[in-house]
Write a structure and sequence with these properties.
Elements lengths: L3 E9 L5 E10 L4 E5 L6 H8 L7 E6 L2 E2 L5 H7 E4 L12 H10 L5 H15 L14 H15 L3 E5 L7 H16 L3 E5 L3 H7 L2 E6 L2 E7 H5 L2 H6 L6 H8 L9 H9 L3
The structure holds adenosine-5'-triphosphate.
Main location: membrane
Subcellular location: Cell membrane
Organism: Georgenia subflava
Length: 268
């Protein structure tokens, strides 16, 4: 059984806009999945359907086999944590510690476990020294980590990161990559929406390509990124390594720099 399953899901906003049309996808425990596609393709609506903020107009969304239609948004949010694109849509506490601990309070954990989770989430996001600062005084790139820490602390089965790399420097990118690795290593699923193809190529195992409200194709990252037709249909730029291998006429190097270098050295 998959941790997340969308089965022929459609969603129409109350104003009548059809935003997602017949989407089916699965995410397994321990898997990293990136949803890519142009603006307006339906990516954000798809992840809001996963975490119960929206309920499908038709089709079914199952989390751990449970239909979200029969659960409240709060119940689903405990299983699927959603880090918004804009941290300012999420942050409202006056210290980083309070912001990270807010979701924990509803879990009614004992004090020791709450503290352990706060410390661990702060360490993973690099916020250990900033717990008493006001998140509103921190730069946007750090505010993003505050919202990631708040969701990590709840320890959901599925972590959804909406545009996590926007505005991050290399240290921030490395930190996000480490979070993806740690969470998938613990059997959690990590789902991201991003326009950052290089980041997906390096750190995400599976890719779903969306265009005009539908899934165009999905599969292993190297299969998808080397599928020029699918990337062109979705009007997406291929990662630099794929573009370079193509221009050099090197086949089967996938997304590995080492494989590209080997193929170049041993060309006939
Ligand atoms: N609250 C809303 N009310 C009405 N229409 C909406 C709403 N939110 C999104 N839409 C519309 O639904 C469609 C899909 O939008 P969605 O935000 O899911 O796409 P996206 O792929 O995430 O785009 P982006 O990369 O810009 O975030 C678009 O036509 C959008 O205008």
């Amino acid at each position: 059984m998959s941790l997340v399953e969308l089965a022929d899901v459609s969603y129409t906003y109350p104003g009548g806009v059809l935003a997602v049309d017949g989407v089916s996808l699965r995410v397994d425990a321990g898997e990293s999945l990136a949803i890519i596609g142009q603006n307006g393709a339906g990516k954000t609506t798809t992840v809001k359907l996963m975490n119960g903020l929206l309920k499908p107009s038709s089709g079914r969304v199952l989390i751990g086999g449970e239909d979200t239609a029969r659960r409240t948004a709060a119940q689903v949010a405990r299983r699927v944590g959603y880090v918004f694109q804009n941290p300012d849509d999420q942050i409202f506490n006056t210290t980083v510690a309070k912001e990270i601990s807010y979701g924990l309070k509803r879990l009614r954990l004992d004090a020791g476990e709450s503290e352990r989770r706060l410390d661990e989430a702060a360490a993973l996001t690099g916020l250990g020294d900033r717990l008493e600062e006001n998140p509103h005084d921190l730069p946007l790139s750090v505010r993003k980590f505050v919202t990631i820490a708040a969701v990590l602390a709840v320890d959901c089965e599925v972590l959804v990161l909406d545009e996590p790399t926007a505005g991050q420097d290399q240290a921030g990118l490395d930190r996000i990559a480490e979070i993806v690795e740690v969470m998938t290593g613990r059997g959690r699923a990590v789902v991201t929406i991003t326009h950052d193809m290089e980041f997906v190529a390096r750190h995400f195992a599976r890719v779903v390509v969306m265009a005009e409200r539908r899934v165009v194709t999905q599969g292993r990252a190297e299969e998808i990124f080397t599928d020029s037709a699918a990337m062109a249909t979705a009007r997406l730029a291929r990662p630099a390594i794929v573009e370079l291998a193509d221009r050099l006429g090197l086949a089967d190097v996938g997304l590995s720099l080492d494989a590209l270098a080997d193929a170049w050295r041993s060309r006939g």
